[in-house]
Write a structure and sequence with these properties.
Blueprint lengths: L4 H20 L4 E2 L4 H5 L4 H14 L3 H23 L2 E5 L2 E6 L5 E6 L3 E8 L1 H6 L1 E8 L7 E7 H16 L11 E5 L2 H29 L1 H29 L3 E5 L2 E6 L4 E6 L4 E8 L8 E8 L14 E10 H12 L25 E4 L3 E6 L4 E7 L5 E5 L2 H6 L1 E7 L6 E8 H24 L1
Antiparallel strand pairs: 1-2, 2-3, 3-4, 5-6, 5-11, 6-7, 8-9, 9-10, 10-11, 12-13, 12-17, 13-14, 15-16, 16-17, 18-19, 19-20
Helix pairs in contact: 3-4, 7-8
Amino acid sequence: MTEDPEHAKSTKDTESARDAGAAVGVGWHRLHPLSPLMRAGGLVPGLLGLLVLGLVTADSYKDYLYRVIVAAGLLVTGFIRWLVTRWKVDGTTLRIETGLLRRDSRQLPMTRIQAVDVVRPLLARMLGLAALQIRLAGAGHGGDRLAYLTVGEAARLRAVLLAGQHGLDPATAKAAELPVITVPTGRVIGATLLRAAPRFLALAVIAGVAATAAPRIFLAAESTLGLIALGLVTRTWRQVTGRYGFTVATSPDGIRIRRGLLSTVAETIPFRRVQAVRLVQPLLWRPFGWCRLVVHVAGVAGRGSGPKAGGLTKALLPVGYMHEAQHLVGLVLGHDMPELTRPPKRARAKAPLSYHFLAAGHNQVMAVTVTGRVCQKTVYMRLEKLQSVRLTQGPVQRMLSLASVHGDAAGRWAHALFADRQADQARGLLDELADLSRSARSAESSS
């Protein structure tokens, strides 16, 4: 007797759904009881300051009581929000319900998951808690957040979600990680300071000129310049602590990134959600041979529309050497790289500052383009990710018989540029890339 394929698929889905529920617990779940404290954690210094200020400045008992009521109201609001929030895994869907007067029920299909992050601020680490950040195709900019769960519960739920995203059995969701690269702390500090140096130098020049040419204006703007300098220092410090201990590992479900000093973040990026990879070589980093690698993940809809709207950008390598970056590109997109060619020499008249960078090439599966003026940028994109191909030709290009071909994937910065090609070659390239992308998508869907 032959088994019905549809029945077999239904039975398999039912078993996977049952395993998913078993992995994280059956039925509805609440967030951790300490979640209200965590949500109010950022307000604690302000609340304490408010109470102390009330003791010092309150003219009467009623003034102090009013401040106490305001502080208590904030804590009660956090408790109510925790009380009306619940979640559960329903088959291949994560359901999140919240709201007191107006109920909000969210259903998050696992197949649309773009990335799953485990975020642990300092207070959460002290309490053994973690927040789960879930980003979906077409979701809002911030995605959905379950804050807070125990560390073990967050790890199990993330494994189940990633397994469901790949259509795998959640019972075997925890895949072994293979460490690839760990960025040294000294390199992170040096690269961050080099990136911040032009901003500090510009501020120092402005302050020096103002102090010399217009002392009165400088004295009036001294506090403003001080605030700007404090903001630059704070930003630099956050970049260093955010990239501290940056580790990249691979697993069957994607690239896993761990980073952070005070607050730690564990990110997982599914391989097939990657739209493009961008390699950047800033001018001040070149003497050290450093570069930066950024991965673009589709699906976070912004206010705009079209192929460049939205998108999620993550650092795959905040600072590293070229061989490290190329190794990571090969792990994410494959090692089948095309040969690059340069534009004709007459393109130098149009782009004298960036001509020495311009190069591009493609094969049956991959497109690679190099552009830039002061900062060299290399974009790697698999052709099945192309959503549109277009040709542009400005006035100077028409005079020189040149044209540029643009390949757009999902995401604001996922963009490959074949700059300043010969006009007839650019028209042929336009049709060729469109045909190759359709073929690549057909091959991917059939595999």
